[in-house]
Amino acid sequence: VALESDLHEALAKQQFQLHYQAQMSGGVLSGSEALVRWLHPQRGLVPPDEFIPLAEETGLILQLGAWVLETACAQLVQWAANPELSHLSIAVNVSARQFRKPDFVSQVGEILSRTDANPKRLKLELTESLLVEDVDDVIEKMHELKNIGVGFALDDFGTGYSSLYYLKHLPFDQMKIDRSFVRDILDDTNDATIARTIVTLAQSLGLGVIAEGVESLEQLEFLAELHCHAYQGYYFSRPLPIDEFEEYALGY
Ligand code: G
Ligand code: G
Ligand code: MN
Ligand code: NA
């Protein structure tokens, strides 16, 4: 309960921050995933696994989600002014509850025009949980956002219930191989088979594919042999505060 009441004040008190994790594609840094952090005055850094579910239950995720989008778009605008950073994209995680709001599309459009961010640099990460009901609504919203240039990645692919039928009808740009399949990819032939299947599926649907949770060169090489050419994980970088991420990006 204490955490919950603190959470309500956290936005007003500006206790949230975004960290950025590198995304590599074709051997170069192509962008980042924005991951929210809560710097609690007593508890220190509270990981999202502890407060995102709470924010979803209480509905605070709607305001938090809007703040994340706004902060990411403002960041894109800053990068746009620097030729060394202007190509970088930001992927933002969107909760089902946030995406389901009837005005989600206009909210994103409003944030993009107010901040003047390039929609082509913004990618929204959706999870399979969204694809279980009212898929028509999801398809419609995705198309509206795609029409203004926003991209989509299917997060945690393989851990949920997506039907391959819907996958064909949803305008995703990229699938993310969940890190649970990457972790033991060198030793577990089932995981290796699943990863290979996801890469093949993405290719045949004409989608990009990125592997999450890449921690070692051996995992990277294995994935490259499967023709997965985009990666995210500690092998390259942990999620970093903005200053450190920019330093990382400029050193690239
Ligand atoms: O690295 P990590 O501990 O940051 O993230 C843990 C979980 O929290 C992941 O499932 C991630 O998708 C989720 N998460 C991180 N940032 C956000 C955010 O801004 N919005 C939502 N909805 N989920 C997030
Ligand atoms: O659920 P989602 O994929 O949005 O969240 C990404 C989560 O994965 C974050 O918690 C992030 O910190 C974590 N993560 C990113 N790279 C790695 C990695 O290489 N290893 C592990 N164990 N976790 C990672
Ligand atoms: Mn994600
Ligand atoms: Na994921």
UniProtKB/TrEMBL annotation:
Domain of life: Bacteria
Subcellular location: Cell membrane
All residue ranges annotated as the EAL domain in the record: 1-252
This protein's name: Diguanylate cyclase/phosphodiesterase with PAS/PAC sensor(S)
Natural source organism: Sterolibacterium denitrificans
Complete-protein stretch covered: 812 to 1063 of 1063
